[in-house]
Amino acid sequence: MKLSKKYELGKKIATREAYGDALAEFGADPRIIVLDADLSKSTKTANFKKVYPERFVNCGIAEGNMMAVAAGMATTGKIPFASSFAMFAAGRAFEQVRNAIGYPHLNVKIGATHAGITVGEDGATHQCNEDIGVMRTIPGMVILNPADAAEARACVKAAIDYYGPVYMRYGRLSVPVIFDEDTFDFEIGKGQTIVNGTDVTIAATGIMTASAIEAAKALSAEGISARVVNICTIKPIDKELLIKCAAETGAVVTAEEHNIIGGLGSAVCETVCEAKPVPVIRVGIKDVFGKSGKATELIDEFGLSAKDLVAAAKAAIALKLK
Amino acid sequence: MDKARKQELSDIAVKIRMGALECVYGGNSGHPGGSLSIAEILSYLYFEKMNIDPKNPKKADRDRFVLSKGHTCPALYATLANRGYFSTDLLKTFRHSDSILQGHPDMKGIPGVDMSTGSLGLGFSASCGMAKAAKLSGDSYKVYAILGDGELEEGQVWEAAMFAGHYKLNNLCIFIDFNGLQIDGDITKVMNPTPIDDKFRAFNWNVIVIDGHDFDQIEAAVAASEQSDKPTAVVCHCIKGKGVSFMENEASWHGNAPTKEQYEAAIAELKSQLGGNK
């Protein structure tokens, strides 16, 4: 996939910003319709609205209706992007997503922003740490959780080119750009090895990929060789890559800004257990609700820092040696 | 509508009722009461009104139909079979594991089904999406939907009503099967959704109240919907279980399959209504 170069490496940009940019950039296709539920300034679909106001449909504060409206549009050949906060897209509208989009396998793209604990100050009611888990149990649903702005933009392009329901998870917090768009190659269902290593694999998704790179550097300073793989597509997950990593490094750490139940950690355990059982330590929200606070403070408090990944990597290696 | 044509449509409605009961009897489960109440509406839409082609079920400019009260799909399946989308032989396989005729409409497997429905309120929203999509691309097809009166208790219905009213979706015409009964009994006792007409008017709809078993009134309502600059809700006074005396106005027939004796009695009664002997 060729993307126009735009995001500067290392610069901090929220993935939701890239979602809005991408809709505006790739929105020329007349089949694309962007729907929002009164959050267009936050979800950044307002960027699309500016360029293509005639194909922007505000549904008001009614997420369940929005999802089924999008489904109806998709039956006529449109490509609707239904956008809201993850809490409402995956949570409130779960049944509509499952029955109106998933069951008939309609070509609806769900842009879920403000996912995870880093939504920050709004607190527990707005911190959706369950969305990957609930979306993962819908047959045929593709789930994309980009690591940075470059990958976030690639997700939109890939979703347009793919036929079927896609759930895209975006964040509010600004995170560093880690992929060089000149060389970056994105494909649904494929993970990438970002750092090579032999002692342990850190499989990271979303904003945790940057932390995993940082953790690998810290481990390297202590003589531990950690491999970092980025798993943007949670479903269908890259089984081949994960099994290879399990076999070659003998221990895995998963890293996600999501409940440790139901998300990447669960998906990796399922994959590895069935093919190449090795110790897997899951780093994520430890099955608790969040609270208000600065995103950066919450990352530390809820055990999602690079330091936590270093500790988990050592623990996984120790289990391997038993 | 001339008398002869009305008689033809009336006979088709009786056949839809017979086919619906064949489904529920063959599947030994399903929803007869609300299936029988919508036969005239389906007969009119599929045999008189809609631009459709059973040989090309997905043709792009076809009018769309959504059965939002998806549990009454026996009537829809009987309609589609009689209209030539698939063999009437399939009706008796309703709800069988090897049949395409699922317990609720499945657009992936059943020719002529425009939307998978069954979860109440959802089909109505989808019909709004179809109508809005047509507006966005300048297509001229119309979208029709049937809702149940009990279904109006779902909050999503009013989200959809607001959406259609806001976007002036005058290419959307919904029929509300106002038969007054839901699973647990009288709708006004379970959770009163009335007045229905005033509620839709308040959401900026064109509202027409008719006898849902009268073809002249159905035709006039649809004609009026085409003149309106708003979406149209046709509130149809219907009789649940219509056409089978022991099922009429009985909430217990909402979701029960008849015994062999009951089925045969019902079919005999319906047969006697063919040819104008109503």
Automatic annotation (TrEMBL), chain B:
Keywords: Metal-binding, Thiamine pyrophosphate, Transferase. The keyword Hydrolase does not apply. GO terms for molecular function: metal ion binding; transketolase activity. Pfam families: Transketolase_N. Its EC number is 2.2.1.1. InterPro entries: THDP-binding, Transketolase_CS, Transketolase_N. Its cofactor is thiamine diphosphate. CDD domains: TPP_TK. Residues 12-276 form the Transketolase N-terminal domain. It is an enzyme of class 2 (transferase). PANTHER family: TRANSKETOLASE N-TERMINAL SECTION-RELATED. Belongs to the transketolase family. This is Transketolase 2. It comes from bioreactor metagenome. The lineage of its organism: unclassified sequences, metagenomes, ecological metagenomes.
